[in-house]
Amino acid sequence: MFSVNFSMLLRTLLFCSSASLVSAASADMPEILPNATDSQKDTFYFPPNCDLKPAFKGYSINHLSLVTSNLTRAITFYEEVIGLQHIFTYNASPKYHIAYLGHNTPGFTSCEEITQRKNEIKGLVEFIYLEGATNSPLPTMKKPNTYSHFGLIVPDVKVAEGRVAEWGGRVIKKAGEELDVTNNELGNAYGLGVEAIGALDDEELKAIVEAFKDARTGAIQSAFVADPDGNLIEIQPPVFE
Ligand SMILES: *[C@@H]1O[C@H](CO)[C@@H](O)[C@H](O)[C@H]1NC(C)=O
Ligand SMILES: *[C@@H]1O[C@H](CO)[C@@H](O)[C@H](O)[C@H]1NC(C)=O
Predict the structure, then answer these.
(1) 122 three-class SS
(2) Which of 57, 113, 130, 235 sits at a 20 to 30 Å CA gap from 208?
(3) pTM of the entire structure?
C-alpha cells in the first residue's frame, strides 16, 4: 500500500514526475514552468481560449450549501474555528432551519443589512438543518459522494490547523505531513475511496498517488481538517513556497 502526500493540486501536478494522466500535448501550451520536462508540461491541458464570456457578465458563485445534522454545532465550529460570521438563521418551520455564514463582510453595520445585501457577497456558506431528521446525511469523508471539499485560504496554515485541534476538531493532515491514501476518509472525499477504485490497476493507482506528491520539496503545505459533520476542508496558504 502507498504512503501519500496530498498537496495542492496545481503545484503538485506542475512538479509531478509521473506519467501524464490528464492531457495531451498542445503546440499552444504556454511556458508555465521554464524548467519543466515535456512530460510535466503534458500533465496540464489549457483550453486555447480563456476569455471572459460577456453574455454571462454579472454571474458569480455566491454560496456553498451543506446539510448538517446539528446546526448549533456547525455554526459554532465555523464561527470559532474557521472565522465565519453567522449572518442569519431563517426558521422556515419549527423544525426546518436555514443559516448563512460568511467571511469578508466589511462595510456593513448589522446582520440585517448583510442579509439584505447578501447577494453582493461571495464565498458564503449555507447550512440546512432538519431537526429530528430520520436519516443522518453522510459526509464526504464517510461515503463517496458528489461533494468533495472546499478550500480555505489563510495567512498561516499552522495557526488555522491549531485552532481546529484546540477546539477539539479533527486535523486529518497537518501542514507538512504525509497522508496515507489508504486512509479511506480522504480517499472518499477525493473520489478515490475503496468503493471507487475497483477498476484501477495498481500501476494507475500508484501514478495518481504520485500526482498528489510534491516531488520538488516533499513538504505538503496544505492542511486537511474535518468539520463536525465529517466534511473535508482544505486549508491553503495564500502562496505556495
Ligand atoms: C531552471 O533553469 C535555469 C536556466 O534556464 C537555471 O538557472 C535554474 O537553476 C533552473 N532551476 C531549477 C530549479 O532547476
Ligand atoms: C448539537 O451539538 C451540541 C454541541 O455543539 C450539543 O450540545 C447538542 O446536544 C447537539 N444536539 C443534538 C440534537 O445532538
Answers:
(1) coil
(2) 235
(3) 0.79
Q: How far is the CA of 31 from the centre of ligand 1 (A)?
A: 14
Helices (H) and strands (E) in the chain, counts: 7, 8
Atom 13, ligand 2: residue with shortest CA distance: 70
Round to whole Å and give the CA distance between 200 and 192: 10
Q: Summarize pLDDT for 69-105 with one digit per residue, the tens.
A: 999 999 999 999 999 999 999 999 999 999 999 987 6
Nearest CA to ligand 2 atom 2: 73
Q: What is the largest CA-CA distance in the chain?
A: 61
**Which residues does ligand 1 sit against, CB inside 6 Å?**
34-35
- Phi, psi for residue 184 in degrees, rounded to 5: -65, -15
13 in Cβ contact with 44 (< 8 Å)? yes
Separation CA 154–CA 84 (nearest Å): 12
Q: Show the cell assigned to 79.
A: 464561527
